[in-house]
Write a structure and sequence with these properties.
Length: 675
Amino acid sequence: MSVLPMERVLICGLKKDRKAILELLQHQGVIEIRNTVEEDEVFGRQDKVAASTTFRRNTTLADQALAVLNEHAPEGGGLLAGLDGRRELSAEEYETRVTKRDAAVKAAQEILSLEKEWSETKAEIPRTESQRVALEPWLSYDLPLDFGGTTATCAFTGTVPGQLGLPEAEALLAQYAPDAQDVDINVISSSPEQTCLFVIAGRKHEQQVREALRRMNFAKPPIVSAEPRKAAQELDSRIAELKEQEKQLDGKIREDVKYRDDLRFASDYFSMRADKYDVLSSLAQTRMVFLVGGFVPQENVGQLENMLTSRYDVVFETEEPDPSEEEIPVKLKNNAFSAPLEGVIESYSLPHWGEMDPSMLVAVFYYVLYGMMLSDAAYGLIMVVACAVALKKHPGMEEGLRKSLKMFLYCGIATMFWGFMFGSFFGDAVNVIASTFFGRPDIKLPPIWFEPVGKPMKMLVFCFAVGIVHLFTGLGAKCYMDIKAHAIRDAIYDVVFWYMLVGGCILLLLSTSMMADMFSLTPLPQQVGSASAVIAVAGLIGIILTGGRESRSWVKRILKGLYAAYGISGYLSDILSYSRLLALGLATSVIATVFNKMAGMVASGVGAGVIGWILFILIFVIGHVLNMAINAMGAYVHTNRLTYVEFFGKFYEGGGKKFTPFMDNTKYFKIKEEN
């Protein structure tokens, strides 16, 4: 349970060893590089932006090519394949693969070129098919659609809305062009949407016929210089050609799956090279030497120094960093019980340098709170088995995911514990199954402690008690931090007085018959109530007198102290927030019970035979899967909420900067570290 102490290191090496030293530092991943040496007459910096940009472009090419391969030839492995993590490469394998990096880039360019051609071909197919569909109504027409007539005649080819027969078309044309003579109309095809017409007339009546057709909403057809039937045949051939071309291009892309592994390595390799060249741009260098400065966890300093000095001619200097002069990065180190909660803390904020690591305190309560909210032994058992199997079957899993699964494993254990304490195993499934199929309503899983659904007030009191312990532990952590910082007065003013006020008020309320009757408790003796009142008043006076101690004016001190004392309402709100433990616990149990009753009623309705069992299992499985998924997520969200708002609000500030070492930031492979 600690924030790892950091050392500031300065490495001075020969320029001829620069590449090897930087690669060693990158593979070890224990130094956060922060170079503070400024450019001057001796030291300068090299601009490596162009090279870094080239490497990142190659990384992008490889990633895009991989995306294309995954689209055309998806890789098997299922949903659990992602649990395997990155493949480990030895130093020898790494060097062997490096020789293929340029070939992989060329393969990526070829794949992307094929993908572009394939996409264009695929897009052309529906366009061509649309042209073919547009010609369908004109297949019986034996002239080009752009035929305009002869010297003596004019011809109009096109469509009008709706379905018209020849008499209707002639009548409309006669209505709109009564003076036009010798007009011949042909209906090529007709459908409810449109009617295709071919109209021919003498040149002297061209304008009248054109105006009449316009009033009929006449529209020109697709312009085809050949006969529609011949054009349709050509389009059919083109469609077949395009589909064959699409198939061939897809086949060529699929053939390139042999480069998938090389592309993955190329993506990682050029990403590492880009990172290294970014570092190179920040190094202070002369013609002969270069400097690397940064932070290294104290526990890694000796090993790193030995590795560098035993292989290269370097000067390795260390000093204790000064938090007043620079921001020191934070790295947490915890035991197996509390380490899984580091991600939860990081999601809120890492502790600032010098602040205590809250991981152990968070872990102790986090698992308890989560288990109380889900509180079903069967759900907890499923979580434990699923997480344990995943951790066992996938030893190469990434550390972040491993910690998350361990967190849910411990949450599952806590859920099992509270499930048995409250007598919930798939809700009341034991009793429902025994009653429905075996006629034994007397068989059920009894709670070890009590059943919250039957005694909600008792559960509510217990939730408040857990909340008070949680909040007081947060105050205790603040007291510890103040004492450690030799701020004894702050510990008394900001913690002890609040213990007296809040604790005294709680004991005073529990000594009253009203509160005792409300929560079905035995009231505390009056002597305890009287002593509690004195303690609470003493705490209140202490807060009023010291809450504004930073002010010189006594009037301002008292006013600020009164405002600080108003914070008692915040404690009331915080304690009431723990009623969510009751709400979510009851929700899980009640919803599970409802699905059990539904399944039992359906099974009883059809008889307790095979059909009854099948229907029961179907409803049972669907219902409990939904219930577990929803309430497991709800328990996670609300446990985080109680941790971030109520618990951290009492002592934790955060604001630390995460330790981000210069390392192999890869997606597919990890290089085996040298020791």
